[in-house]
Design brief:
The chain has 166 residues and is mainly α. The chain has two domains: 83 residues; 57 residues. It has five helices and no strands. α1 crosses α3.
Length: 166
């Protein structure tokens, strides 16, 4: 089954439902429903009409909006991947990062938290925070000593001094 029609339909519907005119129409329908209450003696059927209608619309909109968000997120990830790929000095290991499991993401996050801390420290001491540091995406025991040594070198480096070439 070709999902292209559904993608176009969901994009169009998501766009249309987000417009002020659509909101005004929805408010108008609710007001009209409320005004018909005395006509139907505020019966159970009268209440059931609004409850059923809003439940069905909400249920369907969840899927339409999710479809649109999934495509928008995928497009944004591709654009970010292209920026990373195209930037000289950027770490290509960060391409397709959203596909990693939580353990690997935590490892990358920890590395970048260390970089941010070092950059803030360098800035507070009058240095700069622009460079392209080495990011080791492996977390093995054989690399642990090297990582600790590099962390110590980074801490001992004079503020504003360029990072060592590795």
């Amino acid at each position: 089954m070709n999902g292209k029609w559904f993608s176009r339909f969901s994009s169009y519907l998501s766009t249309m439902t987000g417009r002020p005119t659509t909101f005004v129409v929805a408010v108008g329908l609710v007001v009209a429903w409320g005004l018909t209450g005395p006509l139907f003696h505020f019966s159970d059927t009268w209440q059931l009409v609004i409850n059923t209608s809003t439940t069905i619309v909400t249920f369907l909109m969840v899927f339409l909006i999710q479809n649109t968000q999934n495509r928008d997120t995928a497009a944004m990830q591709i654009k970010l991947d292209e920026l990373i790929r195209a930037m000289e000095g950027a770490h290509n290991a960060l391409l397709d990062l959203e596909e990693l499991d939580e353990k690997d993401l935590r490892r990358f996050r920890k590395q970048y938290e260390k970089l941010a801390e070092a950059a803030r420290s360098a800035l507070s001491e009058g240095g700069t925070d622009t460079d392209s540091p080495f990011i080791d995406n492996r977390n093995t025991d054989e690399h642990k000593d090297r990582d600790e040594r590099r962390d110590k070198e980074d801490r001992d480096r004079k503020p504003g001094a360029p990072p060592p070439r590795r």
